[in-house]
Design goal:
This protein is mainly alpha-helical. It has helices spanning 2-19, 23-44, 49-70, 75-94, 104-120, 128-152, 155-179, 186-203.
């Protein structure tokens, strides 16, 4: 329990430091929070090593993307790193699957994604192409975690699915907040949901 509290505290300090313009401190504590999640994963995970390595790689790429985002440098590289991190997480979930697919799940996720996209369209007119790419990657990520939940039917698997949905929610908020209309406590909500999503995803593997 203390390890999870340490993750939450480090994440909160990192978010607060970023809001206060203390970018170096923000980078240190956000990185520390994600590294502690890696430590929890490796010390408590019961999954096979291949899946654990994929998640670890995803967190490593996420750390790199976070540092670039905090310092507002190389936006294209930062975006690419974010996409790569989600693909790494997705690989871990896809490798857990076996047997047939439940086709109503991707159909439902796709329909919901299309509705959300058109609702957001007036707010994201400048970044439509990156949003579409990000949406496609997050769609298959949600699908993989959802399939894992339907196959396993455990509390851990549904936590992973909720985590991927939370990460999608965080990404949508970030796009709106950064490129169209900032909102009160937006950065806290975006970063908070981002760390919550990672915590849920890690929890699904232990």
């Amino acid at each position: 329990m203390w390890s999870w509290l340490s993750v939450a505290l480090s994440g909160f300090i990192g978010i607060s430091a970023n809001e206060g313009g203390q970018y170096r401190l923000a980078a240190v504590f956000k990185t520390l929070a994600l590294l502690m999640l890696v430590l929890i994963l490796w010390t408590q995970s019961s999954m096979d090593n291949v899946s654990v390595w994929w998640v670890t790689l995803g967190i490593g790429v996420s750390i790199f993307a976070d540092v670039l985002y905090i310092y507002k440098q190389k936006k294209e590289l930062c975006f690419s790193a974010f996409i790569l991190a989600q693909l790494c997480y997705s690989a871990a979930y896809w490798m857990m699957l076996s047997g047939g697919m439940v086709w109503w799940l991707p159909a439902m996720l796709l329909a919901f994604g299309i509705v959300v996209f058109f609702l957001m369209l007036p707010k994201i007119d400048r970044v439509i192409f990156p949003v579409v790419i990000m949406g496609m990657v997050l769609f298959q990520f949600n699908w993989a975690a959802g399939e894992a939940w339907l196959m396993a039917g455990t509390i851990a698997s549904i936590m992973g699915f909720i985590g991927t949905l939370t990460l999608t929610f965080s990404a949508a908020l970030l796009v709106i907040h950064d490129y169209k209309h900032s909102f009160l406590y937006g950065r806290y909500l975006i970063s908070g949901s981002y760390f919550l999503a990672h915590s849920l995803i890690i929890a699904s593997f232990i």
